[in-house]
Amino acid sequence: MSRVYNVLTGAGRPAGPAAEAPDDEESWEEADEAPFVEVGGPGGPVFSPAAPRPTPAPAPPAPEFPRLAPQPAAPAYLSVRFHDLATRAGRPAGDAPDPGLVALHAPDHPASAEYRTLRDEIRKQLPEATSHVLTFAAAAPESGTTTVLLNLAVTLARDGKSRVLVADANTTRPGAAQKFALRPAPGLAEVLAGRVPLAWAVQPAGLPNLHVLPAGEATDGTAGAVGRDLPRLLAQLRQWYDWVLVDAGVWGDAAERDAACPSADAVYLVTRADAAERPEFVAVRGWVRELGGLLRGYVATRA
Question: What is the enclosing helix (H) or strand (E) of 8?
């Protein structure tokens, strides 16, 4: 509105002689911005249209860049790990250790933890930094002596620090070689008879620090050789191994073998849990002491 007022009243026009100069007036009017108002037209004020603005030139099209081909995903490589399943010396191809050796097949099983507890309890009873000979005998058949002894042997060998040997002195009912899927002979019987060197009879049992001396094939003179020469053989094995576990079978089945119990650092009886208080088990405990064996405890088993 101030602009219209200036036009109608002449306000803002230059004063003095410059106001009468046509050229100056034209220059002044052209300098003013549109729209403006002209006075004196026959129909009253006329609003002059704004000066046309130039049409802007169309923007140039955006440059087209070449489309990039999608990059292939990084290849997924196969992860591989080699497991040596080659047949070990002394093990027939296709055979496998007994499933009852839980410490071998399932070291994380609760039963394997029980064998670790058994290992620790036995270690507490014996001096350190020396080799040990332990005899395990059953108070009655089907007590699980061989299974207990072998699982304990595996547990001892798994720590990687101890050399362990299982000596199967149960020549009437041998089981150690069978449970480890090893050759049943030559073994203890042949070594004691002088027919085979000890190094030929000992077999690896699948763990780096574990070996087995099978019972071998018993003959008529095997029982006498066990009673006479087993203590000397055990003394030799002490020099080679940190732990020698002797499977003595059922107590009372072989008098000569039972009489060799003083050669061991400790004797452990294996019995079913429900038979631990029976008179026959109590009698065996007294019998071991009478022969000079050092009875250090018993292992109760349950199915």
Answer: helix 2-9
What's the structural domain count of the chain?
Answer: 2
Q: Domain span at residue 24?
A: 2-47
Q: Which comes out higher in pLDDT, residue 258 or 1? A: 258
The residue-averaged pLDDT of 198-211 equals 94
User: Is residue 133 within 8 Å of 238, Cβ to Cβ?
Assistant: yes
User: pTM above 0.85?
Assistant: no
List C-alpha distances in Å: 56 to 50, 109, 226, 244, 266. 17, 85, 117, 103, 109
Cβ atoms 291, 133 nearer than 8 A: no
Tell me the helices (H) and strands (E) count for the chain, helix number first.
11, 9
The region that residue 105 occupies, defined by phi over 0 for left and psi between -120 and 50 for alpha, beta otherwise, is alpha
pLDDT band at 92, cuts 50/70/90? very low
Q: Which of 276, 273, 248, 282 is nearest to 262 (CA)?
A: 248
